[in-house]
Amino acid sequence: MAGNSSSPGATVASRVLAILGAFDEHHRRLTLTELAARAGLPVPTADRLVGELAAWGALVRTPAGDYVVGRRMWDLGLLAPVQTGLRELASPYLHDLYGATLATVHLAVRDGAEVLYVDRLAGHASVPVVSSVGSRLPMHATGVGKVLLAHAPASVRTEVLANLTRVTPYTVTQPGLLRRQLATVLRHDHATTTEEMSLGACSIAVPVRSGDGVVASLGIVVPSLKDRARLIGALHVAARGIGRALSASGRD
């Protein structure tokens, strides 16, 4: 259960964090009772803390009576280095890539065993895209994720390979096949997927390098991979530009 802090001796800070941690991509609106249950807190305790969080602006009570994350949390999140550094420096190159491809463009980093989408530009083509800025998706089912997984520590790859879930009928869930795909990513310096995350959508992604390693992944979502060579070339040009900007800024 998200943010469980029902253990004896839990601090006020841990209880507040448990309430905030009760929200996720699938739980964007929660009633007080649901917040208390997901945070592992008695309802009266949750009520008091939620009231303080709402007064500060971290939570907002909707007309229906449930709670959503407040604008104050968004403002705070924008101060995180992944926002103020990588996203800011990469923005011009993402727009150049979008202009060259008219495809949906993704900039992502690894967050544990998941992909965290740092930025996204929506493309012209009518292609189903499930990502959004701030969302997390499984690494094994996305192009940007396969790039990041191929360059991740061995312990992360072991964890992901042990927990392969099926998102669509085309998602790779065989550990041996995924290992071979990751080896191909390292050999050819790009990754592709075909309807593994959403039906009707393909993706191509490349690593963004700065300093001594891969710090992010840059990808696009397209209806098909028929123009693969041109798209990979455009991705590498943009990724190299982002890497140079990061190195020059000292923010890698």
UniProtKB/TrEMBL annotation:
- Give the matching SMART domains: HTH_ICLR (SM00346)
Identify the residues that the record assigns to the HTH iclR-type domain, covering every copy: 10-71
List the keywords (alphabetical). DNA-binding, Transcription, Transcription regulation
Q: Where is the IclR-ED domain?
A: 72-248
Record-linked Pfam families? HTH_IclR, IclR_C
| Name under which the protein is recorded | IclR family transcriptional regulator
Q: Which organism is it from?
A: Nocardioides aquiterrae
